[in-house]
Amino acid sequence: MDTIFALASAPGRAGVSVIRVSGPKAHDIGRALAGDLPKIGRAGLRVLRRADGEVLDQALVVAFAAPHSFTGENIVEFQVHGSVSVVKSLLAALAQTGLARGAEPGEFTRRALMNDRLDLAQVEGLGALIEAETEAQRKLAMKVFAGSLGEVVETWRAGLLRAAALLEATIDFADEEVPEDVSEEVLSLIDDISASLTREIAGSHVAERIRDGFEVAILGAPNAGKSTLLNALAGRDAAITSEIAGTTRDVIEVRMDLDGLAVTLLDTAGLREAEDAVEKLGIARARDRAAGADLRVYLMSSPEEVPPIDLEKDDILRLGKGDLFPDEPAAISGKTGEGVTDLVAEISARLSDRAARAETATHARHREAMQTAESALETARFEVEAGMDRAELAAEHIREAIRRLDALVGRIDVEAVLGEVFSSFCIGK
Hints:
This protein is of the alpha/beta class. The chain has helices at 26-34, 84-96, 107-114, 120-131, 135-145, 148-172, 183-212, 226-234, 277-292, 340-355, 364-385, 391-408, 415-422, and strands at 4-7, 16-22, 43-49, 55-64, 75-81, 101-102, 214-220, 252-258, 261-267, 295-300, 316-319. It folds into 3 domains: 4-114, 2-Layer Sandwich (Gyrase A, domain 2), CATH 3.30.1360.120; 126-209 and 363-410, Four Helix Bundle (Hemerythrin (Met), subunit A), CATH 1.20.120; 213-355, 3-Layer(aba) Sandwich (Rossmann fold), CATH 3.40.50.300. It is built from 13 helices and 11 strands. The chain starts with a strand and ends in a 7-residue tail after the last helix.
């Protein structure tokens, strides 16, 4: 492969910037700029010079040797003073050596994948870790990046290979000493792995929500205090408030960190029978977004009000404009702050309870691969129960399940999904 280089830290002025070089000529390039390299894995202070001897900067230099590096190749990293000029000059000097080229987005990580330093799920976990905004997102991404999903897949794979081997033994070695009836063990393996797949698939929906963020819709009749509550929760004037009913016409979104969870609050148009065409459109959007939200908070205009929509078990009911109902225990007021802290705690508790059910699969791609594998195992089970004369068909369906799970971690050709996976990576990663 070509030797590549790029700024590995954030662009712009900083205290320290890191420039990474990876590939077969990385150490040669390091010596060309620094004179000599520190011992492998050790950092050393070096003066970096252009080919004509002009000093570029004084930097900490670290060298790694293949295959014990992030990419699995020889690597040199320069930790330079983070001025825009220093970084620009060093990148130009690297290009002028003629030994390396600028890296493409995600190319360092892609090489780690190709050199078996990471599996595809870990690559996705790394991307999520870079994008993480909250503690829950960081923990989940770190779990995937550490290889948890790959370990689960490897356990499934080992069990399925055992089941396939038992079935193939009845086909190819029927006259030799093999178990006369392997169906019981094969069915047990299929059932255990299918049950594990079902749990992982169910948990992937929650994990995906942790990664992308939960949605909480604030609903109620016009002038029930929804926008004032949103502003109180956001800590700023995110929505226009007015005594005029029907002020909110569109869905207003505010993203926030709620006890480590990424949550998007939705302020929606007041629910009522409207004559105005624009307000009707806003109410339709409110109903659609509320239906797709993870949690709904309905603000009643009076203690006697019956919500005009069906609320789910975990949804929260409050009496809006609590400053007008001082004796109501379930009242809340964005204006005075009454009940806001309790509402935040309740939303957090309900979403945290769901987050606790998250598994290691975090993407729709993971879920689709597992669902396909689960379907193949259902068919394999049917073939095994039909009799050992259909063992060959059962074994083929088990092999299909293995192939689907191998694609999940990139063990087999997944070129079609690589472009999408790496599209969100920055150049230095």
